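Summary for the funding panel

The consortium committed to producing paired sequence-structure records for every protein in the target list. Below we show the first two records in order, beginning with the earlier of the two.
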Amino acid sequence: MPHIIDALRIQPLNAELRKDTKLGAEVFLPSTQKLLDLEALSESDKGTLRKALFTHGVLVIRDQTGLEPSVLVGLAKLFDPAPLDHHSGGAKQVTDPNNILSLNNCSRIPKAPQVTVIGKGRVEDHQGLSEIDLQHLDHLSFHENPLSSDAVKEGFTRPYRWHMDAPLYENLPGIATVLHAVQVPSLPDQKLAFDNQQEMDIAAGATAC
């Protein structure tokens, strides 16, 4: 008998993670795949992925350490019927020190220039980049009324910075954004402080607006 390959599955995230939204689902790859292999997916599986993104808004594929950057590009193209094969931020990386987009010292991957490396700390020999000195930015870099140093020490923060993915770039942004977490630090939760004195518990790094 021919070997039956199980299909890719989608499962909504649990209610605790979804909170009061309907966002978020986990992708379970066929048992023949440890890392996502788009070429090995059936057309049915690809259709399931597309439908899941537009149904749940956010998809999570766990344990993808070692995934090639080119797969991230291919995945983004899977969701976009008319993809542009270049970075939405422009043909060249922003390096002007006075430009807000260069403050985190991010770098594009040479073999997949649509992919940008962001994070914190010095990284050596990563995907063709000999050395990167990544800078972590928070509300202190952008907010009109930053919190005091004492408040920051107590775990308070404010929104990182407001932005919109709109036709303000050299190219229109794609339909989907793909994030690949290579190393996730273990950090305590923070408290988001609003101007009206209200507070909200959030995970560290969850303040992009």
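The next record, for a separate protein in the list, is shown here:
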Amino acid sequence: MNAREKEQYLREYSILKSQGKPFFPYAVAKDGAMAAITLGVIILMAVLFGAELGPKADPTTTTYSPRPEWYFFFLFELLRVVKPPALTFVATIGIPTICLMLLLLLPFYDRNPERHPLKRPIAMIGAVATVAAMTYLSVLGALAGPPSEIDIEVASQYQRGADVTAASGCLGCHKIGENGNTLGPDLTEIGDRLAVTRSRARSSTRPRRCRRTRACATRSRSSSTRW
């Protein structure tokens, strides 16, 4: 923007400002009245229809799959992508806070006075990228399975065992792959460890052959000849 365009912009802005009304009390009164009406409608609906309550929580169930509300699906999927427990803080607080700070600081690092979307590349790229990322993560979160499922690939003959393990609530204490908790031992490589233990057990119970087979056979023949 050159000096002539800037001067014209300031002149038009001063004219519109002189013809308008101050923010206080006109805009504040309108916003306050609308907020009071909305609050009154919510209170009236709560009194007349009541709040919808689900079934009583059962802490012993293993079939309940915790799912957030639809407007938190993007954050739910972000937690599924950032799986290491040490990075949970980054997924829940770090990344959303950085995005919020970039949005709040947008007027300071994008000083372009133009209002046409095609003339605001920084603002438009940021807005489109944010909406696209939240939409993509929300769709993935809506289509994703429960957090209690086992996310490691297993052979087809072991799939039934994986389903039984996931349905039994084992991930509430044990960790399998990247899902689960660390209250109990990690069961990710339990199959390999059990295979090694079984092979050692079989080798220990197998009868040992005598290293001096020929000598033992000679002694047995000689003892039978004497008798």
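Regarding this second record: Residues 23-49 form the longest helix (27 residues). The CA atoms of residues 70 and 205 lie 58 Å apart.
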